[in-house]
Design a protein that fits this description.
The protein is an all-alpha fold. The chain is 70% helix and 2% strand. It contains 13 helices and two strands; from the N terminus they run αααααααββαααααα. It has helices at residues 15-33, 39-57, 64-82, 86-109, 118-137, 141-158, 160-167, 187-208, 226-229, 232-244, 255-278, 281-298, 301-306; strands spanning 168-170, 173-174. Strands 1-2 form a two-stranded antiparallel ribbon. A hairpin with a 2-residue loop joins strand 1 and strand 2 (173-174). Helix 6 (141-158) runs antiparallel to helix 8, helix 8 (187-208) crosses helix 10 (232-244) and helix 10 runs antiparallel to helix 11 (255-278).
Length: 307
Amino acid sequence: AAAKAESTGGSKVSTLTNCNAEVCLNAIQLAIQYQEHSAQAHTIAMRLSDRLLTLCRESLCNRDFLRSHSTVFFNRGASLFQLKIYSQAAQAMQQAIDSLSLWITLANSDGQVTDTDTDTLGQLCKRFEIAASAYQANHSFDKASQQYAGAVLFVCTRFSQSLQDAIIVSKDIAIPPFSSTWNRGSVVDRALMFVDRYARMCANRILKDPEEPSACVSLLQHFLDDSISGQIAGAWLLEAEAHFWRPFMAPSGSLSASSVLKTRLKHLESAVAIYEQQGCLLGHARCLLEMAKINRDLHAPNDCAAA
């Protein structure tokens, strides 16, 4: 660890802090191995994990420790998930997410990670996916929503230029999210995957309970970043979310069917407002057409009779 001190961590890196980080990492691995035999081992592992992240965040040690840290907690989280110990699996996977996302952020600032680095992005997305699935399996839907939103937000901000280049042909033309042109594993494909998973979770919740309010919240409403929510990329994500709701239709005329249609309509209305504000004519027209179809279905005779 000390031998690589000056190469991948910045001017503040020292041999002493690298050794400190290596001790933390080794102790974390030992603590994880003994968690089944000692409740205190879990507390120790979390405390050392926070210490290691702090050292790397302040550029005091080689950032490659972050990747090792992420791998340790990813393996732990994946094993716990297989054992259906979902709460602990989610917690371990969150540690894996924190360290790898920090590694990407630090490496991106030094030009070591670019928008075309889909391998690292794929590793991070896998961590988000397992964490969200663990929370969902544990019926912690709000926390699962935060994972899906966090994944999309990270992809859209950290790889923003690649996303914009892919979806925006010109100021007034945005390629539809349901296009077949996206390359598998690309930034766009990763973002759409999480929008799809989030839409599936929310739609299934509405089919079980049509009056569940949190299931109608759009993915974009979890964002605090105005640079996305008010831009074409934000409208594009809303349009994608409305599209992914389409397969989840309950019997026509039922309360569930009405809830699904109204949720799709609400997402499209928000997308239309952003597209119009940004002058994206094609996206605006595409959403208006889909809204007309939804309004037609909402006011079909069998729906009126049911009402």
